[in-house]
UniProtKB/TrEMBL annotation:
Belongs to the AAA ATPase family. BCS1 subfamily. Signal peptide: none annotated. GO terms for biological process: response to stress. PROSITE patterns: AAA. Residues 317-327 have a biased composition (Acidic residues). Residues 241-389 form the AAA+ ATPase domain. The lineage of its organism: Eukaryota, Viridiplantae, Streptophyta, Embryophyta, Tracheophyta. This is AAA-ATPase At2g18193-like. CDD domains: RecA-like_BCS1. Keywords: ATP-binding, Hydrolase, Magnesium, Nucleotide-binding.
Amino acid sequence: MGSYMQNLSSSFRSTSSWFEVYAAFSTFMMLLRTAINDLIPQPIRSFIASKLEAFFSKCQSNSQISLKINQFWDESVGERNDLFYAAHEYLPSRITRTYKSLKVGKLENHKHLELAVDGSEEVVDEFEGTKFTWMLDEGSEKESSSNKKFTFILTFNEKHRERVLDRYIPHVLKTYEAMKAEQKIVKIYSRLFDYWNESELSHPATFDTLALAPELKQAIIDDLDRFLRRKELYKKVGKPWKRGYLLYGPPGTGKSSLIAAIANYLKFDVYDLELSSVFSNSELMRAMRETTNRSIVVIEDIDCNKEVHARSKADDLPDQDSSDDEGANAKVKPGRFTLSGLLNYMDGLWSSCGEERIIIFTTNHKEKIDPALLRPGRMDMHINLSFLKGKAFRILASNYLGIEGDHPLFEQIEGLLDKIQATPAVVAEHLMRSEDPNEALEALVKFLEEICKDNPVECQLNTGLVNVA
């Protein structure tokens, strides 16, 4: 019994000693942490921590694997590797202030400074809570800059292999496509002789600057967004992925501006097709096959084209005298472009000419268009660009005069616009006559009041028609 009590007492003393050691060690660590925080600046602490993390990561190198993403998939034929270029654009967006070695520059036709990955610096990207390390291998220094072969090296833990291949790399590619679309410079193409002539679409119109009723503007945006996200639905029901719009209304109501706004919103190139320059149905098909995906085909003043008014039966008739070409029932010469050729292009050959297309027709006189062109599937949405009214006028006042919010003369101007039919082009021209907002609005009020005094009247003013209601 005495021996048992002696051992128990010894055990208590041993436990007490351990507690004393633990308390002393905890106190020491607290004092050490306080000293480190007080004496060593935060940047140095972060540097030490990163080096320790890198050291222990190397100790676990057995579980790290790397993927090489070469600039060219097949160097012998110069076949580029799209994944390399996707990473090249994607990674700079992940660069933060912690990186010490970056490339920076200003490129032609780019609005902002460009950042690029430097070969001497790792880039760490985080996706779904997992970190991935990228490194750019710039090749041998002995090679000339024109002959260098660049390679991205992606390093990650082996246990994330499936995540990398199934989700992370597709995420990089998808992000790259979105960035490329956002940075795209929209082009406009016009048909000249036998080929498309290219130039930059510099029209600044956007949906924010369009003088349209807010309800109509939102309806157009919603329809465009719905079209873009329905690729699988079009494929499921067996329809070509395209959408047709008819813009109609008096001259000066903003049809061209709306087309530019749609192109800038979607980042779609524009193909401006003048039907009078198309001499046969086969030439129309050839011109359409040369257009690209994600594009807008514009056919302006469709009501003014004689061949569209004449039916395709004329293809089987002998040549007609040129004096017979007038009128809606005119016959067209053999081999020329016909309405049936246009309908066949819209209905039957879209799938062979690409996908994600929009075709826009414009007219000043909707009633003159052949009904065959107006049905759904050819012109899916009819957009009436009418005369300027109150809410749309305020957008013009903001664009031209910089007036945000209300103005004492707005209510009077809106009341006058409700009584007459004035195009946005006419009102915009008057707003530009003075740089002083008050003077410009007072002059506009005087102009609109003079029209009301002469009621009824019709007159052509500048580029727009003004009618009294």
